[in-house]
Structure formats: C-alpha cells, structure tokens
Design the sequence.
C-alpha cells in the first residue's frame, strides 16, 4: 500500500483518526518567544520539537503535523530565513519520521502548510499565481521529504486556500489534502464566507478532506461542522478546535477549555461526521489523550446526547447558524451572570473608562453594558465605546440601542454599523426623552417601539433581510435584550408590552433597579399567571446607593424606582459611611434575587468602579 492511499483508506474505518494538538502553545510554554521563528527550531533546537511530537504520539495521535506552519518564503523572510525554505521543511519531516520510528507505532506525517501572511489580490498586492508559486516551493520540499499527506490550515481566504490546493496538485496529484479554514465569531471567514459555501468551494477545488480549525472552542467548531456536512453530505471532514477563546491573564495567553471538556466533544464531532479530529491553539497532549480514551471506549457511531444545532433553512438552500455570543453561551449554560453598566465619556478621552472597565473585568464581570446618551445627555457614541472596550480590554459588551430619535433608515444603518464593529449583544430600549437632557429642543421622534425593533432584528436582520424584506447579503447574529420594570405603576401595561417583546423574539431581560425582592417576586408571579412562565433569562437591576441624599433623589425624582423605608433609615443612620452601607445592601439584595434571576445588571453610581468591583468580587465568590 503506498503512502498516499494509506491515509485515504484509514478514513473509511469505523472510528475517526486522531491528529495532534498545538505546537506553538507548547513551544511557548518552553520559553520560546512569539517573536522567534518556530519553524527555525527544526534546525537549531530539534530536540525541543521532537519531544512535543513524542508526547502527542504517546497521547494516542494517529497523525502528527510537521513544525512548518510558517515555513513559507513570505513568513520566513520576516526572520531573514527566506533562503532556507527547503532546508527547514525537509528537516521538519525527517525529524517527525525519526520520532515515529523510535515510537514503534504506526503514525502518519502530515506536512503542515499555513497561510502566507500576505493578502491576495484584489484585497492585497500579491497575485494568485504568485501565491501559488510560494505554496509550491514549500509543498515541494514537504513532498520530497516524504509526508503522507498535507494539512493546509488556518486559512482565512478561501481563494488563498484554493491556490494552495492547486499548488499541491501540481507537485503531486496523489498526495492527500486536508484543507482547513478558520472562522470568526460570526461563523464566517474573515472575508465573509459562510461554512456551507466554504465546504462546497473546497470540494470543487479538489480537497480530499474539508476542515475547520482554530476559530473558537469545540462548541463553535461543532456548529460549523454540522453546516459543512449538510452542504457536502458525501464529504470527508476534519475538526481541530482551539481550547476555547483565548484570554490574557497576567500577561500570558490562556485557553480555558479543559481536556475533559474535549472528551465529550470528540464523540460529538464523530457523531456529526468528522473523520479526523485534533486540536489547535491551547490544546495539549492531555487533550489528545482524553479524546483517544473517549473514542476507544465508545462503540462505533455512539456519542452523548445534548449536542444539537438549530439551523435555519433559507430559500436559496443555504443553512445558517445562529451564533451565540459569550453572553448567550453563559446564559444558556445556566451560569450566573454579572453585567455592569457604564456611561460613555462626554469628551474624546476614553482612558479613564477603559481603566475602570479593566478593573471590572478583573473583579469578575461577565459583560459590560454601554449606555446610549443616558438622561438624554450628549456622550460619545456607544458603538465606539463598545469597540474600544472589546478591543483594548478584552471583555464582551452589550450595546444599548434606543429607538427614540432614530428613524427607520438610521435604525437599520446603525445596526449594520454595530455588527461590522463586532458588537453582537444589543439591549433595546425606548430611550430617555430629549426634553430632560442637554438639548430639549432636539428631535424626539421614532418609527419603531422597542418590540418593533426587536422584531426587526430577530425576524429580519438575523434572517438576512431588512425591514422591507430586501436581502442584506448575510444574516446578522445579534443577541437581543429587552427592558422590564418589576415595580411598574401599571403592571398590566408592563406585562402587555413584555408579551410583545417576547413574541418579537427577545433573548434576555434587564430590569430597572429594584430594592425590594418581594416586589419583584410578586410581579414575576403575576407575569406567569398572565402570559405563562418566562423562558428567557432575567438579570435584575442593581443600583448601589451612595448616601441618604442619593436614595432620596432616586425615590423622588427617578420614575419607576421605589426604595423601602427601612433602607432609607439605614442610609440616614450610616451618615458619612453611606457608601459602605450601599455596598452591603447591594450584596444582600443580589443574594436574595438569586431566587428568580440568573444574574444582576449592576449600575454603579458616579463612576465608582471600585465599589462595583467590590460588589462583583463578593458575589462571584458565592458562585
């Protein structure tokens, strides 16, 4: 049996093949800087690379990938190594072969080919034929050194991947190819292609195995795999997820998904149609070992329940997934969520706000709510603030999206802008009337009430059409919240409006501040009696009091807020220690709200991020 046919025949066995996991993650853990060429280590520190190959083989990998992800002319030129393409790739294959021989195991070598690190025309200066020449140079070295197959991975441009496939076919028409794309949080490539379209294009280009790697964690990869299988039912598929979305902790990049978490997903991947399973960034030999054990212990075709994907069939025959945000995933998993509201700055400078947000993240906040012109006062655009927070601080945001002051054209344009900026969580509200703010004479009209805007988002944009039913190119993936006042004066009207919002498709609820848990409990019981049990998560509004005067102001001048007399007395008795009492009251209320809420919506007064952080830390310790 020749090498080329061996891999393809192994794909037809009754169990999936197991590839290895991350190389760069383990090299970095051994002290190799991200600024250094990992590929050069094949020449200067081969023992370090060999040890990692050895660990993956011991963990149960059927396939190990050469340490050549960046070993193309363009990427090597960044380190002055562009003349050593052949030498680096050849040494990588020979190194992997020696480790396999020493293991006395039947393991295949996959030549790893990564993206060129340059943009192809028309989005860059490199022409497709130039890219193919560079790919061919690397692939020729890998093929000559004797790889069993190629894995062309972590591609963001399907046209670049196509050039790599064609280059491989020119080098050796019989060399098997796994062609693997990576996707953004939207389940789209960086250039906007959906998984179904990608799968069909890769099949047309001649890939033997259609793959998805890197991207997010196993949950997202499973979702994308199912869409790809639906698009190409007779295809062969490969999945190699990251160990979750990376987080920066104390200056280090950390991946949260544990090996045990990967064990269940290995079976789910298998059940969904994966023929090759492995890991990408953040995965280790431990992740591979537990997947090996899970696969070996399960009878063929067997996998745990609970890994379903809701897909929407579109008229064109495409299948679209509804991408959950991190907030959506946490709520769906039953996690207790802490959301914190901040106000955008009044001027150009956002440094203080970013510093405060960093503190909130460190304290354990799950998501940051960004208000839009609170109290009708001029502030920086919340879209910009959301983008800055997500980019600079690394925590997800919820964009407040008032309908007041926006006509139908602006509403839709603003939604598209928000989505393009990477903002996916949207909290729909009516907004404060301009009469109470900085510009009382400003236009105060609106074309949609909140329930109408929720319907536009959930039944329009998220289905790929605008308000007029015109195709917008691709569906958005908004996770949409609505407001609720648990202490509404007209409870019947509040419940009637809530019913409209739920029918429109609201995903979660944020309430106005409340200081009496019993009032909230009674209101929600009334909701259940009137329209049935709430089936979406609710986060209770919590506004810590700063002083007796602050409590009096809220009671007397802010509609919808009612503070029990006992709390007024306590704040009055606290004197100069009012803020400390306010913190303690907030903590106690949060504990009582757990009876009927899945989290809190914290609104720190006067930008006291330190007070908010103290509350968050205390609450999170109890989770």
Sequence:
């Amino acid at each position: 049996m020749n090498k080329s046919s061996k891999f393809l025949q192994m794909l037809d066995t009754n169990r999936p093949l197991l590839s290895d996991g991350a190389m760069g993650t383990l090299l970095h853990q051994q002290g190799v800087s991200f600024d250094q060429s990992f590929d050069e280590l094949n020449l200067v520190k081969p023992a370090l690379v060999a040890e990692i190959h050895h660990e993956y083989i011991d963990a149960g990998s059927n396939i190990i990938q050469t340490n050549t992800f960046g070993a193309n002319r363009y990427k090597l030129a960044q380190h002055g190594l562009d003349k050593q393409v052949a030498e680096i790739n050849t040494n990588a294959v020979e190194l992997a072969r020696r480790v396999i021989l020493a293991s006395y195991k039947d393991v295949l070598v996959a030549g790893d080919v990564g993206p060129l690190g340059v943009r192809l025309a028309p989005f860059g200066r490199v022409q497709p034929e130039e890219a193919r020449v560079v790919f061919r140079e690397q692939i020729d070295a890998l093929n000559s050194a004797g790889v069993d197959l190629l894995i062309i991975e972590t591609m963001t441009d399907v046209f670049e991947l196509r050039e790599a496939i064609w280059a491989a076919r020119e080098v050796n028409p019989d060399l098997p190819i796994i062609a693997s794309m990576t996707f953004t949080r939207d389940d789209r490539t960086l250039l906007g292609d959906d998984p179904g379209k990608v799968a069909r294009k890769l099949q047309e280009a001649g890939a033997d195995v259609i793959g998805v790697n890197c991207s997010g964690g196993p949950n997202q990869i499973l979702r994308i795999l199912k869409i790809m299988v639906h698009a190409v039912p007779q295809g062969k598929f490969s999945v190699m997820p990251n160990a979750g979305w990376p987080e920066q902790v104390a200056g280090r990049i950390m991946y949260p998904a544990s090996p045990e978490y990967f064990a269940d997903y290995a079976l789910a991947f298998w059940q969904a149609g994966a023929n090759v399973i492995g890991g990408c960034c953040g995965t280790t030999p431990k992740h591979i070992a537990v997947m090996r054990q899970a696969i070996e212990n399960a009878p063929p075709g067997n996998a745990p329940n609970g890994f379903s994907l809701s897909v929407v069939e579109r008229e064109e025959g495409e299948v679209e997934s509804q991408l959950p945000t991190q907030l959506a995933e946490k709520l769906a998993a039953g996690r207790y969520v802490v959301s914190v509201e901040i106000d955008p700055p009044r001027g150009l400078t956002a440094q203080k706000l970013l510093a405060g947000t960093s503190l909130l993240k460190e304290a354990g906040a799950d998501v940051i709510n960004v208000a839009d012109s609170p109290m009708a006062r001029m502030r920086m655009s919340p879209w910009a603030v959301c983008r800055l927070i997500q980019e600079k601080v690394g925590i997800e945001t919820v964009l407040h999206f008032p309908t007041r002051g926006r006509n139908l054209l602006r509403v839709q344009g603003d939604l598209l802008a928000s989505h393009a900026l990477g903002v996916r969580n949207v909290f729909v509200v009516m907004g404060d009337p301009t009469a109470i703010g900085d510009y009382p004479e400003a236009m105060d009209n609106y074309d949609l009430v909140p329930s109408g805007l929720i319907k536009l988002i959930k039944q329009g944009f998220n289905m790929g059409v605008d308000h007029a039913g015109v195709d917008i190119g691709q569906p958005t993936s908004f996770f949409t919240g609505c407001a609720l006042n648990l202490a509404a004066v007209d409870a019947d009207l509040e419940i009637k409006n809530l019913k409209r919002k739920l029918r429109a498709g609201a995903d979660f609820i944020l309430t106005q501040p409340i200081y009496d848990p019993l009032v909230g409990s009674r209101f929600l019981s009334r909701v259940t009696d009137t329209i049935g049990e709430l089936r979406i998560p609710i986060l209770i509004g919590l506004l810590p009091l700063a002083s007796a005067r602050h409590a009096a102001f809220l009671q007397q001048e802010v509609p919808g807020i009612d503070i029990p007399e006992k709390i007024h007395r306590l704040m009055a008795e606290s004197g100069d220690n009012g803020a400390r009492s306010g913190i303690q009251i907030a903590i106690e209320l949060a504990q009582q709200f757990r009876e009927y809420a899945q989290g809190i919506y914290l609104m720190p007064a006067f930008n006291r991020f330190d007070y908010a952080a103290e509350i968050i830390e205390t609450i999170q310790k109890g989770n």
